[in-house]
Design brief:
By secondary structure, this protein is mainly alpha-helical. It contains twelve helices and no strands.
Length: 305
């Protein structure tokens, strides 16, 4: 009974929302990237670079807000690398993404040793503090959502709303979806397919960098080797499960985050390792059960135009 009450408690809601933030940001980045026809398996590496960039930027400037901007910039540069490899040099997109993951895994450890003389762990840095929104925190029922919350929560909600609006209510979104399905038709209509693809992949990298910064300067106050811990692959699964829709990706991220939150809020008489497996097992089941049924961008992975 106690576990059931914990499952529907406000603490469970806030834990789920907090864990959903990096998944949501990265999965929406994946939506923009794949809607442009570029497959991105490098989300994990982009998040890892963002996590490192946030700590390094905060360490260098003393400001976690500037650290966040560094993370976004670093993520954007990695996105530009992926776009250049895939669009200009027509590299296999899956190979490029996996290469970014491996590159991030190795380079962040090397940079940790160069900056902090430590293998795979940085020094402590300042975190982005939680905020309370005046007046809104006094509203009954919803007041707790505006009390002592991370600014990233509000950024994420705004990004979800803006991304959905851009994707389905603007010419930019219409053109991007057309490029993902019929790039040759889009090019015939005068749309600069290459420019849109570069912009979409760079935007994906920036959102992934921001997602990584949440892990290192909000959820924690230092960088640790491989601290993304598979969240990039969960974000990719959320992109697919959400139907390549920003709102759908957000809801899918909530589901995966809920699976993670169970371990933190529920006490069961089973080994903790089994509870840690739940979100990853759910990710695999979603990909096996839904991956073959959902219809993604038809030209994803094809840049023969």
């Amino acid at each position: 009974m106690n576990n059931l009450m914990q499952l529907i408690s406000l603490n469970m809601v806030f834990t789920t929302l907090r864990l959903a933030i990096p998944l949501t940001l990265a999965s929406i980045g994946g939506v923009f990237c794949e809607r442009s026809g570029i497959v991105n398996l490098g989300i994990e590496g982009m998040m890892l670079f963002g996590a490192f960039g946030a700590v390094a930027g905060t360490y260098a400037t003393g400001s976690p807000w500037l650290g966040m901007l560094v993370a976004i910039l670093v993520g954007g540069l990695v996105g530009l690398l992926h776009a250049t490899l895939c669009v200009r040099f027509r590299t296999n997109q899956a190979v490029s993404g996996v290469g970014i993951n491996i590159f991030a895994s190795g380079l962040t450890v090397v940079l940790c040793r160069a900056i902090w003389s430590s293998d795979g762990i940085s020094g402590d840095v300042e975190q982005i503090p939680s905020v309370t929104v005046p007046l809104l925190n006094k509203i009954p029922l919803i007041g707790p959502f505006f009390t002592n919350q991370s600014p990233y929560l509000y950024f994420t909600v705004a990004i979800v709303a803006v991304s959905w609006f851009v994707m389905y209510r603007t010419k930019v979104g219409l053109r991007l979806r057309t490029i993902g399905d019929h790039p040759k038709a889009a090019a015939t209509a005068g749309i600069n397919v290459t420019r849109y693809r570069y912009a979409a992949v760079v935007l994906c990298g920036m959102l992934c960098g921001m997602a990584g910064s949440f892990l290192s300067i909000v959820q924690s106050n230092l960088f640790v080797k491989e601290m993304v811990a598979g969240r990039g692959y969960m974000a990719l699964a959320a992109t697919i499960f959400g139907g390549w829709n920003p709102l759908g990706s957000f809801l899918a991220s909530i589901l995966f985050a809920f699976a993670q939150a169970i371990r933190m809020n529920i006490s069961l008489n089973i080994p903790d390792q089994f509870l840690q497996m739940i979100p990853y097992l759910l990710t695999m089941l979603v990909l096996m059960g839904v991956g073959r049924k959902v219809k993604g961008p038809q030209a994803a992975g094809d840049i023969t135009d």
